[in-house]
Amino acid sequence: MDRGRLGDVVVGAAGDVAGSVVDPRAGVSRLRSAMTARGVAMLSVGALLGYLAARSMRRS
User: Fold this and answer.
1) Distance of CA 16 to the CA centre of its chain
2) 30: buried, middle or exposed (CB in 10 Å: 19+, 13-18, 0-12)?
3) Would you list the DSSP string of 15-47?
């Protein structure tokens, strides 16, 4: 990903989250249309890695 576009993506995502707070029904439909199988898989792997990292930090 181009680093110049990264800021645009972050700002767009923050705007989508803020819009979802105001109108949850539209936010859910926007999320469903944006999610792909690859995105769901990446999100799941990220959540799993975060869980494992937090678990290992807690035990230390």
Assistant:
1) 11
2) middle
3) HHHHHHHH-HHHHHHHHHHH--HHHHHHHHHHH
CA 29/CA 41 separation, integer angstroms: 19
Please tell me the predicted confidence (pLDDT) of residue 3: 63
Give the mean pLDDT per block of 10 residues along the chain (60 residues). 70 80 83 79 90 86
- CA-CA distance, 52 to 44, in Å (whole number)? 12
Report, in angstroms and rounded to the nearest whole number, the Rg of the chain calculated over CA atoms: 15
Distant-in-sequence, close-in-space partners of 9: CB < 8 Å, separation ≥ 6: 1
Q: Is 35 left (phi over 0), alpha (psi -120 to 50) or beta?
A: beta
| Helix (H) or strand (E) run with residue 60 in it | none
